[in-house]
Amino acid sequence: MQDSKSPLSDRLSAPAGAGSSFGELRLDGVSRSFGSAVALAGLTMTVRRGEFVTLLGHSGCGKTTALNCVAGLLPLTSGTVWLDDRRIDVLRPEERGFGMVFQNYALFPHMTVRRNTGFGLAMRRLPRDEIRRRVGEVLDLVKLSAHADKLPGQLSGGQQQRVAIARAIVVQPPLVLMDEPLSNLDASLRLEMRTELKRIHRELGRSTIYVTHDQDEALSLSDRIVMLQDGRVQQIATPEDIYARPATIDVARFMGYRNLFELDVASVDGDWANVAGKGIALRGLRRGEIGRRAVVAIRPNDLVLDGGSEGGIVGRVEIVEYCGREYIVDLITDAGTMLQARSAQRVAPGDVLRCHASADRVLIYPVASGAA
Amino acid sequence: MSAAGPAGLGTLRRPHRWIEHLWSATIWLAMGFFLLNVAGVIAVVTVSSFASRWLGTWLPAGLTMRWYATAWREFSLNYVLIATGQITVLVVAISILIGVPAAYALARRDFALKRAVMLLFLLPLMVPPISYGIPLATVLYQSTLGGTMWGVVLANLVPTVPFVVLVMMPFIEQIDPRLESAARVLGAGTGRIFIHILAPLLAPGILAAALLVTVRTLSMFELTFLTSGPDSQTLVVALYYSIFAGGVRASQSIDAMAVMYMVNTLFFLVVALRFVNPTQLVTRVKEQPRAD
Amino acid sequence: MAGSVAKSTVWIAGQNAGVDRTVLLVVPGVLFVILLFIYPFLYGLGLSFTPKEGGFAANYAKFFSTPYLSQTIWTTLSLAIPATVINVGFALPLAFHLRHASRPQRIISGLLVVPITLGTVLVAEGLLTYLGPQGWFNRALIEFGLINTPVKLTHNYWGVLMSLVVTGFPFDFLLILSYITGIDPALAQAAATLGAGPIQRFRQIYLPLLAPGLAVVFCLAFVLSFSVFPSAILLGNPASSTRVITIAAYQAAYEDYDYSLASAIAMIMCAVQLVIVAVVLSIRGLFYRGPAGGAKG
């Protein structure tokens, strides 16, 4: 647990009851089907104490299913969930004692902010004074003390979000589950709440599983990211790794590697490979066993129009968009490959220019996993 | 009452699962019992209508079709069915013609007396027909419409026009008004907007409303009973009179008529249920809390 | 948001064009209801104060001073109140149990529409045989050894009460179901993750959110039961134990041709219904009345 600066967060994060004995949450082959449709296939992962783990993927990838399985809101089709050496997938949601933040917040519309927040404590039959004190503390933490006696309907979206978080953490759960908590907020509020979530997590150090489809949220909040697609785990890694070293071409595509094209493999040496074809010659990092053909993945950001004289890729400028500070440029090569690159200078449609990418930003994947 | 899960703060009580199972079983038994009795009520009418003789046994002594012929003759069912058909068609057509435009105006526009108008349309659905049926019948009889087919049609329209309005309003609301604006921008006049944009989009809703009104008119007893004369009875009113007269006719022929009534009504109900959710048959009143 | 913006733009466009002709579409409907509902009602009200003989309130005086007439209020209440309590009391737990969209829910809803649709006349005809001394119900009870001789369930109070249950319960069930399904299931899930068991979820979440709807259901159920008519005649004992207020009104109008007295009875009927509805709705005022969806609505 982190050093706490304030006595408040010290008290809120003070280990109490069974929560303190929690070491790690383990999912072992967790699967869930709806009829014949497999929503989640054999998810195996571990959440360590105090860790912030994000389940990331497109809608329908199984991330919310996974969260509901952990919460106990959906029975598993197969697999087990363990909290240290206790098997918890057989428990009902009300027996698990996790805190959960729902996508639409699910605040009780007929209860004040104070009663909403204290609901979990009341269910645990804590004394009235104790509930009042703890609710007061957590409302301070989320900066809502002034609104304690309002109904949720009288609050703004961001305030409702804070109530939902307060309600989930006030019971000092061993694990906090968050289902796309920021998706209902507008863009600027989303950024603000993201920072807020980060702050609360740092102050309380609660283990958290967070579900989102937004890669920026995942990158900024997480200790580790679990990338899901079609109910299957694609990669479990730190944000840095998942950003720079996506395990598969699908993860790469999701993480913003928009330039994807198939080339011939010229040579392989260790972790590196050279690929060529369609008038392009590139050197890059090899991701997996590649055969004669491979898929190259480069972020538009890493493909720089630098006006160099040799190597790299030559293309004709099609569209130029200014996005502040630099330009996003759509190019087409002689062989008809569409590319997106960036440029520090203004260029004009019709210009024929050369762009380069440094070798450690070029990723080379096997073709089999479904190329672009 | 021991600590159950890894509850964080404090302890959580473990619910007794066997109580829940018992509760669930009780619920299903109660529902089953109710449905069994309803099925019994319907089955007893049906079986009786085919019974040659049925006295003091579980099932009749033999089966026959002759009660249908008897009922057809004795109750002049051909006239009753023609009257029922005419009344139903008129009620459906007029209630759609009056109700749909009103629903459109209410769904699309905010105007000064909108809440009052909504309340006006809700009232005939909230007040039971028998309460306003007697004054209504009095007025109709004084205007010489009482006892005629038009009197019955007008009386039946009192709850069905508001019903159509309330069924169609949410339906129209969920059609994006920008579609009409778009058509207007593209040069379509009101008439062509109606033919090309609204009519196709409204058709399923109108069909559902028409079916529901059909079912309601076929089964509307009180208003028809209070306003109909000998030539303007619908099937359900004729059925009432035959039951009321009891003893005069064989109960099997009454039941044969009851079965014809059931088949008629249930046919339209089953068709209607293909378009609407069962709860929609009663939930028109759900608007009520918003109206006060 | 976008919808209301679009709506107001259209409205402004209409204003600029002068009179908003679309609003006029509501006129035929309004005129119709005024002419055939409001006017007859007011006419009836006026008629009730112009009795065949005596002062302007003679009809009302006659009603309340003639036990044969005034008794009908109590007879009706003694049917309507138990029927309403039974129907709502059973419909609530059953609808709650079936609140999740599922195949059983759809099937049962579909089946329950049948008795509502068939209506009181047909149900009365069926019950006459079904509950009769030779009917299947009595036979089954004897078969199971619960009774020795058939119980009399027709042409008395019990037959009418049963008919009110058969048509009323499905109505209440479907209404309550529609209210319950309007409550965001995430609220109960949230309560569950916070440690609330099934009973607590019902008491703390569903019941308070359902209370306003339940009040409305109760009122409608009561009004329906209070206006019991054909089954009280066909299945009850319309001369005495089930001589309900509608029968008194009907007899005044169609047997004695005293439309004035009949209107007065109809008005009294509405008044009793209004009083009960007012009582129930004022109790409802004590509960939360906002939207029952998520806090965002």
**CATH evolutionary superfamily of the largest domain in chain B:** MetI-like
CATH domain fold name of the largest domain in chain B: MetI-like fold
Low-confidence stretches of chain B: 1-6, 284-292
Major sheet size, sense and barrel closure of chain B: none
* Strand order in space, largest sheet of chain A: 6-7-8-3-9-10
- Radius of gyration of chain A over alpha carbons? 24 Å
Q: What spatial form of chain B do the alpha-carbon principal axes imply? A: globular
Proportion of residues in extended strands of chain B: under 5%
What does the main sheet of chain A amount to?
6 strands, mixed
Q: Please give the alpha-carbon distance between the first and last residues of chain A.
A: 44 Å
User: Which structural class fits the helix and strand makeup of chain A?
Assistant: alpha+beta
- Overall number of domains of chain B: 2
**Count of DSSP E strands of chain B?**
0
How many runs of DSSP E, i.e. beta strands of chain A? 20
CATH class of the largest domain in chain B: Mainly Alpha
Helix share of residues of chain A? 25-40%
Summarize this structure as a short list of keywords or feature phrases.
heterotrimer, B: about 290 residues, mainly alpha, MetI-like fold, 2 domains, 12 helices, disordered N terminus, disordered C terminus, C: about 300 residues
